[in-house]
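Chapter summary example.
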Amino acid sequence: MVESAVSEFMDDPNSKSMHRISPIPLDSQSFAAFGDVLEATGKHRIAINEGTTVRFHDLAKIDVEKDGGKPIVNIFRGTPYPFPLTIRMMEKHPFGSQLFMPLEPFEYLVAVAEAKQKVEVEDVVIFACSPKQGVNFRPGVWHHPLLVLSEKQDFLVIDRGGEGINLIEQELAVPIVIDL
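The structure predicted for these 180 residues follows.
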C-alpha cells in the first residue's frame, strides 16, 4: 500500500478530530493498486498517419461491460472546493472503471483508497497530478470526486453506462484536510 507523504491526526477545536494528508506525485508505480496512469510516455509508441502522428497505445484497461454495461464518453467540469481543502466522503463504482483525462492546463489532485467493502481514513492516499496526466480507476476503487485546485477544469471521462446502481458513496469517520 502507498502512503501519502504526511498522514497524521490533529485536533480541531471547532470539531471532532481531523486527519491530515500531504499529496505525493502521481506515477504509474505508486498508482498501480488503484488503476492506470495515462500520459504520453512509455514503450507503446506507434508511428501512424505517414509518420506525422505518434500513437501512445493501450494506456488503460477500460472495464465497463459487467452486467451489460457499455462505455460512454463524457466531459465533466470540476469546480474548486473551498480552502482548506477538506475531504468528507469517498465514492466507488462497482460495475466499471472510470477514466479522467484533463482538458485544461491545470494541476489537480486525486484521492483514492483500495477497493474493499468500506473505506477507512487511514486508507486514503492523495496524488498530485500534472495537467498531462490522466487516471483510470479500476472497478470498486474508492475515490473522491474531482479535486481541481485553481479554476474550473474540464475532463474527458470514459465511464460505464447501463443498468444497475454503479455509485456507492460513503461519509468518512473523520474529515481529511489536504496539506498543500
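To summarize the output: Residues 4-13 have pLDDT under 50 and may be disordered.
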